[in-house]
Task: inverse folding
């Protein structure tokens, strides 16, 4: 199966209850041959409306991290989430919530296939849910970030989710968490240059 065939299949997905409340499936986007892949948690309001991952405030910060931090174009990397449909409290479309275990179980095979098809050299997991899912750990992001891990022989660098950065000091100034993310991205640059 190709990535676009998988995207087409996902666009008709009914495997979990989020199918009944979504506006659009947010499959992921970017270079199918990307050497670097980012994995977030799940679509929010803006992503559900546009069908594209990371386009809201957190997404704009992620774009700056890619362009200004990694000196790459957003179109050069691949961006996906653990779940492809927006989880909201009571399915009412007002307040976002993290995906529940059933939703992750139903949706994860799409992500697993995306990773297999793209086969990036490096994966950056953004925040706890993506990191814990990929690394099969209950350990928290503070402990895991800044160090290399592996998933099916692919190098994985966990770092803070951009939403977490926005909640802790915003996108202004040089906060300690932001410095940590810059540090982690430097490790990613070094790794990509080596490979
Ligand atoms: N947060 C995520 O984890 N993913 C998105 O696509 C947008 C915000």
Result:
């Amino acid at each position: 199966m190709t990535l676009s065939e998988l995207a087409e299949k996902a666009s008709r997905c009914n495997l979990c209850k989020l199918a009944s409340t979504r506006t659009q499936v947010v499959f992921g986007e970017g270079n199918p041959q990307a050497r670097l892949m980012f994995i977030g948690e799940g679509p929010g309001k803006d992503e559900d409306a546009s069908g594209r991952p990371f386009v809201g405030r957190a997404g704009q910060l992620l774009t700056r991290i890619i362009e200004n931090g990694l000196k790459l174009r957003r179109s050069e990397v691949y961006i996906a989430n653990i779940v492809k449909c927006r989880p909201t409290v009571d399915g009412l479309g007002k307040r976002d919530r993290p995906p529940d275990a059933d939703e992750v179980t139903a949706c994860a095979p799409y992500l697993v296939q995306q990773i297999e098809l793209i086969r990036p050299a490096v994966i950056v997991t953004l925040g706890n849910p993506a990191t814990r899912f990929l690394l099969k750990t209950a350990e928290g992001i503070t402990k895991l970030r800044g160090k290399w891990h592996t998933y099916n022989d692919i190098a994985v660098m966990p770092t803070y989710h951009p939403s977490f950065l926005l909640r802790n000091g915003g996108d202004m100034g040089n906060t300690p968490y932001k410095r940590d993310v810059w540090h982690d991205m430097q490790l990613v640059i070094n790794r990509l240059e080596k490979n």
In short: The two ends are 27 Å apart (CA to CA). Residues 40-44, 47, 53-54, 56, 58-59, 81, 163 surround uracil (CB under 6 Å). The CA atoms of residues 3 and 152 lie 19 Å apart. Helices lie at 3-11, 45-50, 57-69, 101-118, 127-135, 141-144, 162-167, 176-194.
